[in-house]
Write a structure and sequence with these properties.
Blueprint lengths: L6 H9 L2 E6 L2 H4 L12 H4 L2 H4 L2 H6 L1 H15 L6 H12 L2 E6 L5 H5 L4 E3 L2 E8 L5 E3 L19 E5 L8 H12 L3 E5 L11 H7 L3 E5 L12 E3 L3 H12 L6
Parallel strand pairs: 1-2, 1-7, 2-3, 7-8, 8-9
Antiparallel strand pairs: 4-5, 4-6
Bound molecules: ligand BJW.
Length: 250
Amino acid sequence: MVVEIPKGLVKALNDARRVAVLTGAGVSAESGVPTFRGEEGLWRKYSPQELATPQAFARDPKLVWEWYDWRRGLIAPLEPNPAHRFIALLERRVPQFLLITQNIDGLHQKAGSKRLVELHGNIWKVRCTREGTVKEDRRVPLPEIPPRCESCGALLRPHVVWFGESLPVDALEEAMEAAENCDLFLVVGTSGVVYPAAALPQVARSHGALVVESNPEETPLTSLATWSLQGKAGEVAQRLAREMGWKDEG
Ligand code: BJW
């Protein structure tokens, strides 16, 4: 199905001086990263309570690490898709821009995004459970599971945000400020059910921003969107880039 791009949206994107973008797992789906919810989602096969909570990690760190090690192996060879590239390109064309991602896969950075905050952490970072120190670790597979801190020997954990844990304060503050102060808020590939991220489009809307959603499915955010583009993120991005006359979008 060809996604129709409303003329008003092209003008709004061209005119916007302050843009914020919120992405979720759906933006990486066409790159091959599984989403969480839906038919093929991770939560169909794995229980969040057993894998993505601090209690799960306390109970069985080896099991939790095996799952993350498997996901790291899956993500490592994957490449950004046209949606990641469109967002990176948008950043370079807008004076005030922030990409707010819930994703931990690092594909936005791989596509060239620079002005971004990661609300739920990054799968390529590990954190010492005793010292709190954060380090990048891209080894796939990890040589030891569960991995241990080189300096103190305590357990390392994935530097991600599990259910019931607080989001990084600075990242959330920056995201909130961008939502409050943007002309246009673009939401790509999120089910819009996980808070506080899901509140950001509502904040943007209540502060007068235009809200644009790109998702093949309806979500709780669809009703507040000024424009809802029903399609896969990569396909929508390619159509949008063409309508905007961006030649270098692939
Ligand atoms: C495509 C596509 C294509 C498919 N193109 N699209 C207020 C109200 C109710 C509850 C709460 C609340 N405040 C806090 C809570 C509790 C909780 C929460 O929100 N629970 C709800 C589920 C009910 N939130 C938290 O616990 C957060 N912490 C917090 O708020 O701390 C303070 C506090 C705690 C407790 C109580 C009150 C306050 C932390 C949330 C951490 C989320 N962590 C995870 C795992 C990260 C690490 C990892 O990856 O392992 O983050 S869970 C998972 O969900 C992951 C995602 O970032 C997040 C969001 O999912 P996302 O990205 O939207 O993916 P999907 O799969 O849900 O959707 C994909 C979408 O893509 C779909 O719409 C598809 O249609 C679409 N799609 N193909 C475009 N090609």
